[in-house]
Amino acid sequence: MSSSADLVANGVDRHDHVLRPRPRKPQHSAVRALSRASSGENMDGQTPSSAAFENGSASGLASGRSTPVPENAPPSVKSLSSARKQARAENRRRRIFPSTDFESRVSHFDPESDYRDFHGFFNLFWIGLFIMGITTGLRNMKDTGFPLRFQIWTLFTIKLWHLAVADALMVGSTIVSLGIHWMSRNAPANGVLAWKKGGMALQSIYQVAWFAFWVFLPFYLDWTWTAQVFFLLHTMVLLMKMHSWAFYNGHLCETEKRLHSLDNHSRNSPSDLRPAYLYPSAERPEPTTAPKSRVSLSDEDNEKSADELGTLREDLARELTSPIGNVTYPANLTLANCGDYLLCPTLCYEIEYPRLEHRNWISLISKIIATFGCIFLLTVVSEEFILPVLTDAAQKLHPVLGAPPPMSESLLILLESISWLLFPFMLTFLLVFLVIFEYVLGAFAEITRFADRHFYSDWWNSTDWMEFSREWNIPVYSFLRRHVYSASRPHLGKSRATVITFLISAVGHEIVMACITKKIRGYGFICQMMQLPIFMMQNTKWVRGRQTLNNVFFWASMILGLSLICALYVLV
């Protein structure tokens, strides 16, 4: 048997013979050994005799008493050798005492392992949260006589009707974009209200005014921070949906006018013969153009020129048709289509989406229950482990009577508060992720029969912030890539487009923090923009490729950043 050095010297990887766990629940080794001993099978599912016949050798089963049979031995000699090996195998198979099989294998958590099913840890996570809820309720019963505290729970009921009416009006106001689009579509190709001229400007002005009004309204009505957070997040979702709908249909409007203009193409009335502009999509993240046509007025009567003109028509017509092929612009300009898009769990508009044939009602009900369960746990964590820490620190840093503590003591109070908030904010972050991307979006996907449920990827294995931004929130990432990065890259270049994309994302996060705390400090904006230099540092030759180190750094910075930002906004 060759040694590891011989294998390496011969160019053979010493891990080639290692058996890795298969991506399924493995059978217990003792049970597998007993079943193998009773059936006479080896690790490959073969009997020892069949393995010996196939491999021409039984080195794995031999006891050392066999004499190798030459390759040119007579058939009778080979038959006798096989008979002896089979007899010895039969004797071993009749052993009473069970044996243990030892092989070259790796553990499930080994980096070389192919095992990826850790659903049991997900169940353990929920069991741990259940234990936390029970112990918290028992402690509250002992201290106050009630299983729950009611500092945050009572906030949910304050001005609830204000929230419901305002949210319904906000959703209804998005329909104005449909009216603006019809004005642009009915305008002449070079008219003032055409999409590429006044239509795009009018839609942009409306979006800015719309967003400013609905962000200001909760401040004017003096809502609680819980209602304001929900309303602001819904406002930002509707803003992105409205922008995607308006600008994608604006592109289709200009494409339709170009297609119709080709019907009247002549020497005296030339048309726009540039290649068709292909809007970014899931299959084509970057905007591109169709293969360039060489149509010109001088060879208009040429057969080749006519074929190229037909190709341009086909490219434009294909751009007006959904990828599935059932709907063509402008058949999608209906209230039903707009309402369906508002319910679909996506921020990027398409004429048509892939759908499932049936709804899974059991899955829908379970996701609704899980949504309220996550909200309940988020409230418990906030009320039991976050709010008391912040309240106690605020009283120490800003006493009602007496002077504030010196700078050194204030710094210690701030650091202590951050340390107490680390674990609660880690739980809060995980619960927010689950309630949004697994349960809320999953529930709307079931309601609309939306087939694409890829709302996130394995962001928990991220090694840098760029990878995290791509994988933890795929709907927002797809929107920013399609409508911000891809739209600005042709004009600004790759680097500046990346900075602009991060800048818009940072502004959005800062607006959320300002609405929650009613303070404009810029901490969230600074932390968001710091992701760019951190990403550049992780791409250096000293750090790049160290996956475990980078993943640990990602998690540490994530947990510390959440606690730090919260403490700074509330206490400073």
UniProtKB/TrEMBL annotation:
Major localization class? endoplasmic reticulum
Location(s) in or outside the cell: Endoplasmic reticulum membrane
Q: Name one Pfam family in it.
A: MBOAT
> What is one process in the GO biological process aspect for this record?
ergosterol metabolic process
GO terms for cellular component? endoplasmic reticulum membrane
A single GO molecular function term of this UniProt record = ergosterol O-acyltransferase activity
Q: What segments bear the compositional bias annotation Polar residues?
A: 36-66
The alphabetized UniProt keywords are: Acyltransferase, Endoplasmic reticulum, Membrane, Transferase, Transmembrane, Transmembrane helix
| Membrane topology label | Multi-pass membrane protein
- Catalytic residues, chain numbering: H509
**Which residue ranges does UniProt annotate as crossing the membrane?**
121-140, 160-183, 204-221, 361-381, 418-441, 552-571
Locate the region Disordered. 1-94, 280-306
Describe the task this protein carries out: Sterol O-acyltransferase that catalyzes the formation of stery esters.
Spell out the family assignment given in the record's similarity comment.
Answer: Belongs to the membrane-bound acyltransferase family. Sterol o-acyltransferase subfamily.
Q: Per its record, how is this protein called by name?
A: O-acyltransferase
What organism is the protein native to? Emericellopsis cladophorae
Q: What phylogenetic lineage does the species belong to? A: Eukaryota, Fungi, Dikarya, Ascomycota, Pezizomycotina
